[in-house]
Design a protein that fits this description.
This protein is an alpha/beta fold. It has one domain (2-219): 3-Layer(aba) Sandwich (Rossmann fold). Helices cover 33% and strands 13% of the residues. The protein contains seven helices and six strands. β1 (2-7), α1 and β2 (33-38) form a beta-alpha-beta unit. Bound molecules: flavin-adenine dinucleotide (FAD). Residues 9, 11, 13-16, 18, 99-103, 144-147, 189-190, 197 line the site of flavin-adenine dinucleotide.
């Protein structure tokens, strides 16, 4: 597979850096072709706005979605965005490597998504979820936290890790058509000892080696929803984050 790792950590010797390096090494050894988008090293501009297109379609009123759509049609999307879209288009699988910051992705990674997942490229009318633009591609989050697995248990103080990551898993990845592997989460590596961190890296290596046999996260398919896009009566909510009311 062509695998793109989108890596968002400012420090190369961080645990996230170690996970990224391990992924490159392990996946390459398995015969995959691996590319890294190292957002801090690239100096990625994370702020979506008027400079995202070479030509402004509507000079009177700025609409990001409209400008993106026209720029994608006319080939005038900014060069840095086009380069990332090319990498994404070529990828069969994308791994997002990041630390949890404020219960979400670091801003530089969110900004990569805001700009690269442009309207007309990553989504367009009638193309979402089962029919999403990236149907056939696979994605996985590889992340780290500052607190323990217990705090991210379903009854933990921080809440279920899958609930925390649902906006990314469903709102970003599944929405645009990806199949999604369960996340690999290294909990509080900074508070583990060397042996504990080595175990976390070993667990990640094993996950990387079993990508093709690991069951995907469950998402309801289109036929489970009625015309109002709510689960049809009698369909048991199984995604883990949705519930029957
Ligand atoms: P590092 O601190 O870089 O590394 C941890 C340890 O691993 C270090 O001792 C390092 O030397 C060591 N290490 C590096 N490479 C290796 C290797 N190859 N082998 C063995 N050891 C190695 N946490 C939450 O849980 N929820 C939040 O909402 C949250 N919000 C945050 C917001 C901000 C702005 C910040 C700065 C932090 C936040 N945190 C939060 C904490 C954050 O998630 C953790 O600090 C981060 O995930 C730890 O990962 P790291 O890569 O930065 O670890």
């Amino acid at each position: 597979m062509n695998i793109l790792i989108v890596y968002a950590h400012p420090e190369p010797t961080s645990f996230n850096g170690a996970m990224k390096d391990l992924a490159v090494q392990t996946l390459t050894a398995q015969g995959h072709s691996v590319t890294v988008a190292d957002l801090y090293t690239m100096g990625w501009n994370a702020v979506a706005g008027p400079s995202d297109t070479a030509v402004r379609a509507d000079p009177d009123r700025f609409s990001l979605a409209r400008e993106q759509t026209i720029a994608m049609e006319s080939g005038t999307i900014a060069a840095d965005i086009a380069a990332e879209q090319d990498r994404l288009t070529r990828a069969d699988m994308v791994i997002f490597q990041f630390p949890v910051w404020w219960f979400g992705m670091p801003a530089i990674l969110k900004g990569w998504v805001d700009r690269v997942f442009a309207r007309g490229y990553a989504y367009r009318p009638g193309r979402k979820y089962d029919t999403g633009m990236f149907k056939g591609k696979l994605a996985m989050l590889a992340t780290t936290t500052g607190t323990s697995a217990d705090t991210y248990a379903p009854d933990g103080i921080d809440g279920d890790i899958l609930t925390l990551l649902w906006p990314v898993h469903n709102g970003l990845l599944r929405y645009t058509g990806f199949d999604v592997l369960p996340p690999y989460v290294a909990y509080m590596p900074a508070r583990e000892d060397e042996a504990g961190r080595a175990l976390q890296l070993e667990g990640y290596r094993q996950r990387l080696e079993s990508i093709e046999t690991t069951p995907h996260l469950f998402f309801h398919s289109a036929e489970d929803y009625g015309p109002n896009e709510r689960l049809k009566p009698g369909v048991l909510a199984r995604s883990g984050q949705q519930r029957n009311v």
